[in-house]
Amino acid sequence: MFRLFGSFRPYFFLLPAGMILFVFHLFPLAMVVWISLFRDWRTADSAYVGLDNYQRIFESGEFVRSLGISVWYALGTIPATIALALVFAVLLGRKKRLAGVYRVAFFLPFITSTVAAAAVWAWAAAMWAWAVGNWLPLCWR
Length: 141
Known about the structure:
The chain is mostly helical. It is built from 4 helices and no strands. The protein is extended, with a radius of gyration of 28 Å.
């Protein structure tokens, strides 16, 4: 009995992740494929057309053109992004004289926006607490 349960134990722990994968990835993907088999799924008189929608897409020149643009964009941006990330990693990781300047220049936008967001939330929370503090005694009368 315990030997049988022990073999299912890893799958039991993977069950929450599997449910999230199903609910947010696999089920929507299946629904998109199912909806694509109908002419107009938003109306009550939607007709089942099967793979005619896919045939129409692949025969049109717009799909091939947009696919080419997407591939061209990916081939242009992915290597450039990787090269730029490598340059930043080398500049931030070295122990030279200007390493501190590179680190400050790299992290300053992130830190500035985080501090600004924290200041706005602190101001909003203070205003909310002040408003609730003024309103609360009225409820107790």
